[in-house]
Write a structure and sequence with these properties.
By secondary structure, the chain is of the alpha+beta class. The protein is 15% helix and 36% strand. It has one helix at residues 60-73; strands at 5-14, 20-26, 29-34, 46-50, 53-58. The protein has a 5-stranded antiparallel beta sheet, covered by helices on one side.
Length: 95
C-alpha cells in the first residue's frame, strides 16, 4: 500500500541542481526529502511525504492524528527502512 506520511521539516538546503531538499523527521526517524512540490514550506512546517517528495503542507494537529492512526495500524515500522548509502547494522542472513 502506498501512502503519504507526515513529517516535520528540520532543515532546508538546495541540492546541486538547485532543488530545495529538506531534512524531515518522521517520529524521530530523519530522512532527506525533495521539497520541489511544496515551495512554500518552511523549517518547522509539517509536510505529507510520498516516495521521497513532500506533496503538501499540513498543520501539526493533523500530523499527530495521522501518526496516531499509523501507530494503531502498526505501519510506523516502515519508516525504519534504510536509505541508500546509509550504513546497515543488519547481519547477513545464513545461506
Amino acid at each position: 500500500m502506498c501512502l503519504g506520511v507526515p513529517g516535520k521539516i528540520l532543515e532546508i538546503q538546495p541540492d546541486s541542481h538547485g532543488l530545495n531538499m529538506g531534512r524531515v523527521s518522521f517520529a524521530g526517524v530523519t530522512k532527506e526529502v525533495c521539497l520541489a512540490y511544496t515551495p512554500e514550506a518552511e523549517v518547522g512546517d509539517y509536510v505529507v511525504v510520498h516516495v521521497g517528495f513532500a506533496i503538501s503542507r499540513i498543520d501539526e494537529a493533523e500530523a499527530m492524528k495521522v501518526f496516531g492512526y499509523l501507530a494503531e495500524m502498526g505501519e510506523l515500522e516502515e519508516l525504519e527502512i534504510p536509505q541508500p548509502g546509509a550504513e546497515s547494522n543488519a547481519e547477513p542472513a545464513d545461506p
